[in-house]
């Protein structure tokens, strides 16, 4: 759900965020820091909501810090997503050098720590037993925790990315750095999970919730770290290859006057999901299984393929010499299932599918088993 735009960056909130927001507002007002402060019920609720809003504003400030520094280093930002565990800045590219990565990663926790110090100072000014004093003290505490937690060297947390940048600087290999940082991240995530299980089993019900929360965070870190590592392995495996190298030859072309039932029959016969549509030797577009939603109520025998297909001018396509790593980027940006490779003369050279790219992964893993990744000294 899009809620607004700050500095030209879309701010999107996940539904889980609304749930957590309600929970935080309730917990603050009812069982949290305001419990011992004498206030009217209405004041209590209002202050709970305001404090929750300021807390999420703090999370947003943390993400904005990442995003604005990244943009100042030439990395475009599409959006910031706020969800259950905090926020994610969607960078549309990767930092080109280790110092840039370190700075982009570090500035988020730094912002949180500075905000924490500001809120703590405010709470001292406002007095420890006043409602506003308690609220700012809580916000100071929350920001410090946010800053310190994110500085843990558990990739892909910010601290893990700083570690990644350091290893990258030392080994001169970004890929090697990802392997090492992801390995340490897995170890820490595993410790989180083990500790969470231990706390849940031995420390009684009061600690069971925070124990389960630890397990949840550990599991989340494990997932996120593995996803980043797989992406890095893919990029590494695709290094030096072009779209033409990884494309598969186009299947039989369909003539422009083919009807939808012919398309379905061809799909079933060949087991492929996308076909070029040609008029003579001119490529008009591509029809894929997903295009059948455009069929509507029409009987498949009465609908021409040209009314279903995605037209050439609307397609995300690449040229044979496009770097395979750029094709990978296009996949993650567009979410399409296949990308046609079209040469300068407008001829369809082939398709790259997600499977074509993923197929490179086991091959690469096997190769690594045969050849050591770094020279032995
Ligand atoms: Zn961060």
How would you portray this structure in words?
By secondary structure, the chain is an alpha+beta fold. The protein has 3 domains: 1-151, no CATH class; 156-237; 243-361, CBS-domain, CATH 3.10.580. It has helices spanning 15-31, 41-72, 98-126, 131-151, 158-171, 174-202, 204-238, 243-246, 260-270, 324-334, 354-358, 360-370, and strands at residues 2-6, 9-13, 77-83, 86-91, 254-255, 274-279, 282-288, 310-311, 338-342, 348-353. A hairpin with a 2-residue loop joins strand 6 (274-279) and strand 7 (282-288). The longest helix has 35 residues, at 204-238. Bound molecules: zinc ion.
Summed up:
By secondary structure, this protein is an alpha+beta fold. It contains twelve helices and ten strands. Helix 2 runs parallel beside helix 4 (131-151) and helix 6 packs antiparallel against helix 7 (204-238).
Unique bound compounds: zinc ion
Shape: elongated
Total beta strand runs: 10
Sequence stretches where pLDDT stays below 50 over 5 or more residues = 367-377
Strand order, biggest sheet?
1-2-3-4
What is the CA–CA distance across the termini? 53 Å
Assess the beta-strand content as a share of residues: 5-15%
How many domains comprise the coordinates?
3
Give the SSE map.
Layout: E1 2-6, E2 9-13, H1 15-31, H2 41-72, E3 77-83, E4 86-91, H3 98-126, H4 131-151, H5 158-171, H6 174-202, H7 204-238, H8 243-246, E5 254-255, H9 260-270, E6 274-279, E7 282-288, E8 310-311, H10 324-334, E9 338-342, E10 348-353, H11 354-358, H12 360-370
Parallel strand pairs: 2-3, 5-6
Antiparallel strand pairs: 1-2, 3-4, 6-7, 7-8, 9-10
This protein binds zinc ion (ZN).
């Amino acid at each position: 759900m899009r809620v607004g735009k700050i500095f030209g960056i879309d701010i999107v909130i996940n539904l889980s965020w609304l749930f957590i927001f309600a929970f935080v507002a309730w917990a603050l007002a009812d069982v949290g820091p305001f419990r011992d402060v004498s206030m009217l019920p209405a004041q209590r609720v209002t202050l709970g909501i305001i404090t929750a809003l300021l807390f999420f504003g703090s999370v947003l400030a943390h993400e904005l810090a990442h995003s604005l520094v990244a943009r100042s280093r030439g990395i475009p930002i599409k959006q910031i997503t706020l969800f259950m565990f905090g926020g994610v800045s969607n960078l549309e590219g990767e930092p080109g050098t280790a110092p840039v990565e370190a700075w982009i990663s570090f500035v988020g926790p730094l912002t949180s720590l500075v905000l924490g110090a500001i809120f703590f100072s405010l709470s001292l000014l406002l007095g420890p037993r006043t409602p506003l004093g308690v609220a700012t003290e809580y916000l100071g505490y929350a920001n410090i925790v946010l800053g310190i937690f994110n500085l843990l060297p558990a990739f892909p947390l910010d601290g893990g990315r700083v570690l990644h940048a350091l290893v990258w600087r030392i080994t001169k290999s970004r890929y090697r750095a990802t392997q090492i940082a992801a390995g340490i991240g897995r170890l820490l995530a595993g410790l989180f999970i083990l500790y969470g299980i231990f706390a849940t089993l031995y420390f009684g019900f009061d600690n069971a919730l925070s124990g389960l929360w630890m397990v949840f965070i550990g599991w989340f870190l494990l997932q996120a770290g593995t996803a980043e590592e797989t992406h890095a392995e893919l990029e590494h495996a695709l290094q030096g290859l072009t779209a033409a190298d990884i494309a598969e030859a186009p299947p039989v072309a369909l003539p422009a006057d083919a009807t939808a039932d012919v398309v379905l029959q061809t799909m079933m016969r060949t087991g492929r999901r996308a076909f070029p549509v040609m008029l003579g030797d001119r490529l008009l577009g591509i029809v894929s299984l997903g295009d059948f939603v455009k069929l509507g109520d029409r009987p498949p025998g009465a609908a021409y393929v040209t009314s279903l297909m995605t037209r050439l001018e609307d397609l995300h396509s690449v040229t044979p010499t496009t770097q395979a790593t750029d094709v990978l980027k296009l996949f993650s940006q567009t979410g399409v299932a296949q990308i046609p490779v079209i040469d300068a003369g407008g001829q369809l050279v082939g398709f790259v599918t997600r499977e074509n790219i993923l197929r490179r992964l086991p091959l690469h893993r096997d190769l690594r088993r045969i050849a050591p990744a770094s020279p032995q000294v």
